[in-house]
Design goal:
This protein is an all-alpha fold. The protein has eight helices and no strands. The relative contact order is 0.15.
Length: 149
C-alpha cells in the first residue's frame, strides 16, 4: 500500500487491528452524521462480542475519530488503510457487521449506500454477494422491528 496518499492525521491515530476495526465501525455508524444511543449500545455490544480489548477506551477512540474525520479526503483510501490493518479473512462476516451498523438507525441514504459499495469493493465481494447480505440484514432488521416473519 502506498502510504503517500494516507492522511497522516488518521494514520498517526489508527495503527493497529483493533483500532482499525473500531474506527471502521464508527465510520459506518457516523456516515449519516447521526449516532443515537441505541447505535452506540449496538456498536459496544458488537465490540465486546468481537473481543476488542477492554482497556481500549471507546469514548477516546470516538473523540479521535471525530477529530480526524473531516481530514479524510478519499474515503476509498481510508477504507483500504483500515482493511490493511484489519487484514480481514472472513470478509462476508465483516461486511455484514458493517451493513448492520449502517442500517441500524433504519435510514439508508445515498452516502451510506456509497460507503457500503466501497467496503464491498475493498473486500472484493461480488455484487450479488453484497446485495444478498444487504437484503438479509434489512429483512432481519424488519423482523426485529415488526416482530413478524
Amino acid at each position: 500500500m502506498d502510504n503517500t496518499f494516507i492522511s497522516t492525521t488518521y494514520a498517526s491515530v489508527v495503527d493497529n487491528q483493533d483500532q482499525a476495526l473500531v474506527h471502521l465501525f464508527f465510520h459506518c455508524c457516523l456516515e449519516d452524521d447521526r449516532f443515537t444511543e441505541p447505535e452506540m449500545e449496538d456498536l459496544s455490544a458488537k465490540l465486546v462480542l468481537l473481543g476488542i480489548p477492554p482497556k481500549m477506551s471507546i469514548k477516546e477512540e470516538l473523540i479521535s475519530y471525530r477529530h480526524y474525520k473531516p481530514s479524510i479526503e478519499d474515503e476509498q483510501i481510508f477504507i483500504r488503510y483500515l482493511f490493511g490493518l484489519i487484514k480481514p479473512v472472513n470478509e462476508l462476516a465483516l461486511y455484514s457487521y458493517c451493513v448492520e451498523l449502517v442500517v441500524d438507525d433504519q435510514f439508508l441514504d445515498a452516502r451510506e449506500e456509497a460507503l457500503l459499495a466501497k467496503i464491498a469493493e475493498e473486500l472484493e465481494l461480488e455484487k450479488e454477494e453484497a446485495a444478498t447480505i444487504n437484503r438479509l440484514v434489512a429483512q432481519r432488521k424488519a423482523v426485529e422491528i415488526q416482530k413478524i416473519f
